[in-house]
């Protein structure tokens, strides 16, 4: 039994949202080892 079903008399609403976002592509300055190393040292 879902919590929303179990406590339906005490719930006045439900929010829905995405739990994951997938971003595709490359970051040219970071897509190789030396670029990522430089970024990490800088930050």
Question: How would you describe this protein?
Answer:
With about 45 residues, this protein is an all-alpha fold. It has one domain. Helices cover about 35% and strands about 0% of the residues. It has helices at about 5, 35-40. The longest helix has 10 residues, at about 35-40. The radius of gyration is 22 Å and the shape is rod-shaped. About 0% of the residues are buried.
Summarize the structure.
This protein has 43 residues and is mainly α. The protein is built from 2 helices and no strands.
The total beta strand count reads 0
Q: From the helix content, strand content and strand pairing, which structural class follows?
A: mainly alpha
- The rounded Rg comes to 22 Å
Which assembly state applies to the chains in this document? single chain
* SSE series: HH
Helix percent band: 25-40%
Uncertain regions spanning at least 5 consecutive residues: none
Relative strand content: under 5%
Query: Helix segment count?
Result: 2
Mean pLDDT: 85
Q: What profile does the largest beta sheet have?
A: none
